[in-house]
Amino acid sequence: MRKIKNLLSIPFGSNLIFRSFEKILQKSSGGYILSFHDLSPKSFEAQVECLKPCIPIALDELIRRYKSGKNIDNCFAITFDDGVETTIKENWNVCKKNNWPVTFYLPTDYLNGNNLPFQKIQLLENSLENKIYELPSILDKEQKQITKSKLITYLKDIIYIKDYQYVKKYLDFFLGLIPKKSNIKNYDYFMPKAIDWSEVKDISKNELSSFQSHGVTHTASSALSQNELENEMIESKELIEDCTGQKVNSFCYPYGSKKSISELSISLASKHFDYSTTLLKGRLRPNLNLHYLPRIDFYEENTNSFVKMKVLLS
Ligand SMILES: [Zn+2]
User: Fold this and answer.
1) Distance between CA 136 and CA 144 in Å, rounded?
2) Distance from Cα 116 to the centre of ligand 1, integer Å
3) Hey, what CATH class is 2-114+193-313 in?
């Protein structure tokens, strides 16, 4: 009886149980791409460490092995999206210390001083007065009045599917209604600074790092025309290559969800890049489209047990 109790008390995070479940579910123990956004170096390091004996290898190397049908058990790749300065610098130090290759996906407009759409929504959510807003006629929404909470929900929805100008009109209108930057508490928390190009250049000298394209404006690819998509892909690629002197061969679709990625964007990505990543969950199973690769995403609050369970079930 005690034996059974002891067994039951072993948390799911235990390596023994983790490996046994892998066997039962007939999962190999590697072959996936991790996706991180904003998280502390402490959580990041713990989450990667807990996947041992699987170890991180360079994304390029993982895809090269995958393409040639080689074994990708026991390895995975680390990617960070969006280019927030503190996130990159702090987590890059963790990668350097542990000898972990890492790929950073950069939206180039953000590095050029324009905060990302979802950061602006965060700022609005935290600094708009809680009341009913009259919508001006430039915002072509059927209803003419909207509460703050409905507005925020609406904005969070449209960034996944609408083009840059449409989203910008809304954001600019409401950003015009909030207090001045200096009067907003925690402004830098909601609108974090992007990494500088000079810092990108510096980090890129170390071959453990790779900087790749996350577009220019961080607009959902499905909302863009052929011309706009090609501009997003070519411009970001050239800017990053000019800075690092390294080849940009990978694209990460902004928002990465099914509704944010069109057939057209997949075909254009295959023209300009060697492979492209999404936020659809999964491992690198055989016969995937190289321009629609799944990843497994983790966040600050995810415990080691959760990380292992999610990898197991992906
Ligand atoms: Zn992103």
Assistant:
1) 7
2) 8
3) alpha beta
